[in-house]
Backbone:
């Protein structure tokens, strides 16, 4: 089977000149050219994970991070978000003296309490106004 590739704009200059000298190229030749182009292209970006010491692609990193996120409880996610707002990490808290740790823990508990009260108020408001009743069923 012969394929005419004179109009193929994706060929490199050397491939185009060789293709121009022979107006038709066999499927096997096209396959070999594509295989060569695929191996010449840059590999996917990789990162070295600290925990395993293995390299992984950006996609694998994103999947791993999503999996770790989904494994956490809502309380853990809320705590991490509050720590991020405060500009702290769990390691930072562990390095603090006990008095400072208890003060930070108290501040975190207060912010968690505020967020939970906000959510509860939003739920009450939605129930009262009926906007939370998505099926428009009668409220009893």
Residues:
């Amino acid at each position: 089977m012969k394929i005419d590739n004179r109009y193929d704009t994706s060929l490199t200059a050397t491939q185009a000149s060789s293709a121009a000298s022979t107006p038709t190229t066999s499927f096997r030749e096209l396959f070999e050219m594509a295989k060569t182009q695929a191996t010449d292209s840059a590999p996917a970006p990789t990162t070295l994970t600290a925990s395993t010491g293995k390299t992984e692609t950006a996609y694998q990193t994103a999947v791993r991070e999503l999996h770790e996120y989904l494994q956490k409880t809502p309380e853990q996610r809320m705590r991490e978000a509050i720590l991020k707002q405060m500009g702290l990490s769990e390691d930072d808290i562990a390095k603090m003296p006990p008095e400072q740790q208890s003060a930070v823990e108290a501040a975190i508990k207060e912010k968690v309490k505020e967020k939970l009260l906000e959510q509860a108020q939003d739920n009450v408001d939605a129930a009262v106004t009926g906007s939370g009743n998505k099926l428009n069923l009668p409220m009893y």
